[in-house]
Amino acid sequence: MFLEALKSVNSRTDEGAINVFVETPKGSRHKYDLDASGLFRIAIELPEGESFPFSFGYVPNTKAPDGDPVDIVLVTAGSVPSGALIEARLIGVLKMENDEDGKMARNDRIVAVANMSRIFSNIETLGDMRDGFAWDIELFFQNYNRMIERPFNIVGRGEREEAYEMLKAAEAAF
């Protein structure tokens, strides 16, 4: 169901926003993946007391260097359901790498803000977020990767322009 519908979704809207498909909602203790049948599967259960501090998903019809669609950390004031398609704007990128088949490979997470958000309506770049925001998200990913026993490194951060360049390359690769 979702897979067929997502094939017709553009990565960008007519207004210049991007479309983010949410797999894992903010506040969830479970990491969900959309499988080949179009159903959501629980991929991982986080430890007691841990939850996703953001919604996590991807931009449809893109291909990142790791071969998957572009990963998106979606900033919203509250939770949105798995399967939601949210219009958002890119504000930056968290540069990361993790183990892929015995080699460290880049697996960046682009950060976006939901356009519908009133609380984050003035945020245009990663630098506009509260002090410590990027560090909090990086710490979440460090803990997440440690939990699944996967080597992981923080490589750096980038602002909005770099995120849009990454998206542009992923659209072309698709």
From TrEMBL:
Alphabetized UniProt keyword annotations: Hydrolase, Magnesium, Metal-binding
UniProt cross-references to PANTHER family, sorted A to Z: INORGANIC PYROPHOSPHATASE
GO biological process terms on file: phosphate-containing compound metabolic process
Database matches in InterPro entries: Pyrophosphatase, Pyrophosphatase_sf
One GO CC term, this protein: cytoplasm
Signal peptide annotation: none
Enzyme Commission identifier(s): 3.6.1.1
Organism: Palleronia aestuarii
Protein's name according to its UniProt entry: inorganic diphosphatase
PROSITE patterns for the chain: PPASE
Enzyme class of the recorded protein, top EC level: hydrolase
Cofactor(s) in the UniProt record: Mg(2+)
SUPFAM superfamilies the record matches: Inorganic pyrophosphatase
Transmembrane segments: none
Molecular function terms from GO: inorganic diphosphate phosphatase activity; magnesium ion binding
Record has Ligase as a keyword: no
